[in-house]
């Protein structure tokens, strides 16, 4: 058993981090420490990640925003009400306890955001934190800063670092492990109390319909693929574009890609890239050699690729770096079938009119769907855990609920419990029959009232609109022809009648 983590185990058993005032103080100290070191932090992020100054500033800002939202969620008065609700004869349905110890195994992508945002959520929930900081050259400066700032800002008894994988015995009996990257199969099966990234939801797709604003779609896709070296798990891995607009969209995409490339040329010269894109580059080269893909253009370190075979592994793989993969589709249904053929997606971005966007979002199984946008904040940080989903706050990956255990407390009887208790206390079957009859009568009235309010029929759906459009395109010309023939035919008959 590790002696270095003994203070963490003792603090978790004592419940030292449960006090809400203590949690507020910890988050206040952490925010002030990060604000005081703003310039140093952003410079370290920029150097370690080879990103632009703007991208480093955005990562830093979103990290502070997560911490501030965690801090504002701590309501002292409400916490006291929940704690003593039972003594006042009230229920405490939302009462929760912390897990105990949260063990964080961070990802190297957006390292600063990933570590601090998870730490903030864990502390907000009242947990002690152990962070596995591996000594790597890629994140050396940020790693050193994190160790220094977190130790300085947080109580030393509830935050600890380790460079090797801690065992279950090293942690308290009540703990949970947060893996921010997909671990190997052995790791997934070794620890039962763990939160993993979405193993089966790893790929993302962008769909460009003929009704889309092609320029806006191209700019959004290029920005997502170039941001943070093209390593975001939420960057689109492949783009399915309608074949009728592929030409103009390709021109818009090449222009948008060159604009993004020019923004990053100076930063790449100042901070040589350390992106792990060799596997993607090797796969693209292999598919081009096998004639399943065509190299359209080189864009910096990446390639704009036209995937001309649906058997290509490129449509089934996670793409890294400044590489953009295109594949043409015949229709929205064709895009839906192709995007869904290998399971559910991490995210779907549809560029089309609202009705088409709704149709695609409804029929493509995806953890989250966006129409006519790729929010930049979703590109920051690791994928959400498999037991959680994104909310409207796209920058938040970890909520306090992930690191809490529900402990609802009840003292008030529900009306249904009272009714059942009343029936159980009376041996007369007639009382039970009367109660049952009253309940059935009430339900029947509710159903009847709902049926009376419901309007007959419904709105036209996607397929109904298509049918009516088809009927209109074929029916209107026929009606015009019939009308024209009838007009001239009746005129001819009338003239002959007058002559005779």
TrEMBL record:
Top-rank taxon, per record: Eukaryota
Keywords: Membrane, Transmembrane, Transmembrane helix
Organism in which the protein naturally occurs: Talaromyces stipitatus (strain ATCC 10500 / CBS 375.48 / QM 6759 / NRRL 1006) (Penicillium stipitatum)
Listed InterPro entries: Ald_DH/histidinol_DH (IPR016161), Ald_DH_C (IPR016163), Ald_DH_N (IPR016162)
Lineage: Eukaryota, Fungi, Dikarya, Ascomycota, Pezizomycotina
Entry's transmembrane regions: 467-490
Protein name, entry field: PutA family dehydrogenase, putative
GO molecular function, one term: oxidoreductase activity, acting on the aldehyde or oxo group of donors, NAD or NADP as acceptor
């Amino acid at each position: 058993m590790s002696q270095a983590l003994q203070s963490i185990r003792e603090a978790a058993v004592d419940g030292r981090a449960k006090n809400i005032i203590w949690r507020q103080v910890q988050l206040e100290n952490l925010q002030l420490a990060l604000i005081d070191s703003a310039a140093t932090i952003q410079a370290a992020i920029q150097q370690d990640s080879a990103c632009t100054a703007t991208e480093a500033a955005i990562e830093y800002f979103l990290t502070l925003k997560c911490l501030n939202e965690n801090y504002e969620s701590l309501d002292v008065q409400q916490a006291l009400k929940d704690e003593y609700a039972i003594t006042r004869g009230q229920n405490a349905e939302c009462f929760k306890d912390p897990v105990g110890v949260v063990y964080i195994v961070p990802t190297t992508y957006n390292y600063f955001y990933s570590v601090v945002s998870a730490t903030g959520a864990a502390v907000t929930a009242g947990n002690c934190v152990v962070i596995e900081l591996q000594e790597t050259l890629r994140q050396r400066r940020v790693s050193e800063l994190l160790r220094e700032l977190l130790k300085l800002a947080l109580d030393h008894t509830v935050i600890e670092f380790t460079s090797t994988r801690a065992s279950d015995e090293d942690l308290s009996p009540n703990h949970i492990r947060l893996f921010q990257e997909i671990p190997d199969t052995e790791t997934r099966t070794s620890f039962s109390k763990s939160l993993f990234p979405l193993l089966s939801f790893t790929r993302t797709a962008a769909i460009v319909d003929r009704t889309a604003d092609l320029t806006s779609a191209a700019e959004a896709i290029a920005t997502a693929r170039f941001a943070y070296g093209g390593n975001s798990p939420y960057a689109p891995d492949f783009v399915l574009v309608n074949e009728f607009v592929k030409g103009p969209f390709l021109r818009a995409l090449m222009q948008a890609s060159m604009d993004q490339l020019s923004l990053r040329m100076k930063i790449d010269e100042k901070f040589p890239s350390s992106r792990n894109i060799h596997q993607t580059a090797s796969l693209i080269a292999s598919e081009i050699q096998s004639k399943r893909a065509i190299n359209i253009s080189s864009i910096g370190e990446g390639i704009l690729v036209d995937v001309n075979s649906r058997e290509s592994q490129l449509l089934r793989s996670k793409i890294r770096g400044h590489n953009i993969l295109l594949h043409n589709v015949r229709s929205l249904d064709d895009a839906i079938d192709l995007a869904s053929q290998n399971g559910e997606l991490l995210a779907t971005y549809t560029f089309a009119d609202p009705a088409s966007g709704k149709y695609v979002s409804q029929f493509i199984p995806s953890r989250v769907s966006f129409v006519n946008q790729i929010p930049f904040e979703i590109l920051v940080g690791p994928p959400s855990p498999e037991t959680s989903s994104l909310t409207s706050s796209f920058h938040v990956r970890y909520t306090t609920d992930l690191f809490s255990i529900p402990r609802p407390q009840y003292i008030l009887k529900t009306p249904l419990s009272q009714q059942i208790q009343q029936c159980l206390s009376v041996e007369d079957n007639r009382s039970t029959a009367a109660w049952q009859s009253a309940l059935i009568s009430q339900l029947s009235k509710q159903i009847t009232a709902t049926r009376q309010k419901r309007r007959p029929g419904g709105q036209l759906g996607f397929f109904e609109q298509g049918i009516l459009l088809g009927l209109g395109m074929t029916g209107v010309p026929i009606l015009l022809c019939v009308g024209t023939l009838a007009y001239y035919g009746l005129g001819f008959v009338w003239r002959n009648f007058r002559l005779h």
